[in-house]
Amino acid sequence: MEFPASSIEALSIGAWILGTGGGGSPYLAELNLKRLYEQGKRCQIIQPHELDDEDMVAIVSQMGAPLVGQERLVDPSYLARAVQVMEEYIGQRFSAIMAVEIGGGNALSPFLGAALLDIPVVDADTMGRAYPEAQNTSFAIADLKMYPLSLVDCRENEAIVSKVPSWVWMERISRKITTEVGSVASTCKAPRTGAEVKQWGILHTVSKAIRIGEVVLEARRIHENPIDAILDLEGGKTLFVGKVVDVDRVATGGFLRGKARISGLGGSQGESVVLEFQNEWLVALRDGDPIAMSPDLICLLDTDSGEAIGTETVRYGQRVTVIALPSPKVLRTERGLQNVGPRAFGYDFDYRSVFAE
After folding, report:
1. Are 67 and 256 in contact (CB under 8 A)?
2. What is the spatial distance between Cα 11 and Cα 159, in angstroms, rounded to a whole number?
């Protein structure tokens, strides 16, 4: 099925919301994709069940610190080149391409590559949101093979991580290379078969992002509350409404780390919430106590427009609403929580869902 130009904006809006603050702002990727369509390029979307078990699927992303991505612009040719480098290394051609995460600009990465490589995009990803590290994927939760990985940057550096003993080591080595080339690079992760995608991918997330974007656009068109439309569609909950009063962030080790403090407005007057992040919003704290945490999706939205606000774009004075959305089931399994629960990010408390009865 052809991916229409009319869906690019909706995908961008929905993916930015699902990105939970990370994945990089989709704005520049959106402009790139629209430009490719103006040049006559087109993308096709296929459903996971259309993959043959033996098909090879490229898993792509921009890796690095989101703040750097605002200065070093994404070039679709490098995403395509990362796929070609992997094909040359494994001696096989890919039948399709897929996002490592449906969050932010990385949701558009496979479309940028697909437009140049003329292969379809799979309606799936490996997180159902965005996360900062290799071991945060559903394929890592399944303990599938984590290598090889190809990496390409704008200086025409090309690297292959040919073998590692664990997902953590893949993260450490590829992150170090990314840091050395300037904290942003295009990557093609370990190749996946169609069978692996169908069993362990987070399925139909491209369609999900488009639906979220469409309800936001429709709510704006008819002058209704876009945040209410998101909550109704996804079964989410409002956590806090307020104004950003302080942001502390630093790009270090290939990540963007820090916290944002939000002072309550309206019914939350006199209260405050702190959102802590490592590329993505990971926990929300009120008076030091967690009120929401990974893997639940913590989304920071502009109160009026419903536009997502990323960890690299949050700033003093923004009027914001913090919401939570349910996470994919695989992330909430025992093994999933070992990889993406709060303890996986260094917090000394166990996962407690916003949506627990």
Report:
1. yes
2. 30
Do 200 and 235 belong to one domain? no
Q: Are residues 13 and 49 in the same domain?
A: yes
> Do 194 and 231 sit in the same domain of this protein?
no
- Cβ atoms of 114 and 120 within 8 Å: the answer is yes
AA identity, residue 128: G
**One digit per residue, pLDDT tens: the chain, 357 residues?**
899 999 999 999 999 999 999 988 999 999 999 999 999 999 999 999 999 999 999 999 999 866 666 666 678 999 999 999 999 999 999 999 999 999 999 999 999 999 999 999 999 999 999 999 999 999 999 999 999 999 999 888 999 999 999 999 999 999 999 999 988 899 999 999 999 999 999 999 999 999 999 999 999 999 999 999 999 999 999 999 999 999 999 988 878 899 999 999 988 888 999 999 999 999 999 988 999 999 999 999 999 999 999 999 999 999 999 999 999 999 999 999 999 999 999 999 999 999 985
172 burial via Cβ count (<10 Å: 0-12, 13-18, 19+)? middle
> Range of 236's domain?
225-345
Secondary structure class of 335 (helix, strand, coil): helix
Integer Cα distance of 315 and 318 in angstroms: 6
Residue 322: beta bridge partners? 240, 300
Q: Write the CA distances from 204 to 45, 99, 127, integer angstroms.
A: 11, 12, 12
Q: Among the residues of the chain, which ranges form H helices?
A: 8-18, 27-38, 66-69, 76-90, 109-117, 138-141, 167-180, 194-200, 205-221, 226-234, 334-340
The answer on 198 and 331 residing in a single domain is no
